[in-house]
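note to self: dont lose this again. the chain is below, predicted strucutre after it. 91 aa total, dont forget to put it in the shared folder this time
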Amino acid sequence: MTEATSQKSTCGGCNKEFLIIPQEQGFYQKKGLPTPENCPDCRRKRRLSLRNERKLYKRKCDKCQKDVISTYSPESKYIIYCQECYWAHLG
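---
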């Protein structure tokens, strides 16, 4: 029986060497995905860059119409509650 070994790769973003452990290799093969070209840190930075944490919008709570600030624009299809309505909705 052969033991799986970690695969070394060079990050396409920062040129640092990183390892792809056997469990990751198995996951990518099972899902039919290519092995990553970027290190975990560069992949994390890319995922976080896609999040909207900088742009805030003024809108109304969809329940009580109180003014709130949200990361979702008024044109988005998402229902937005103020803090009081959100916690009341859960209870």
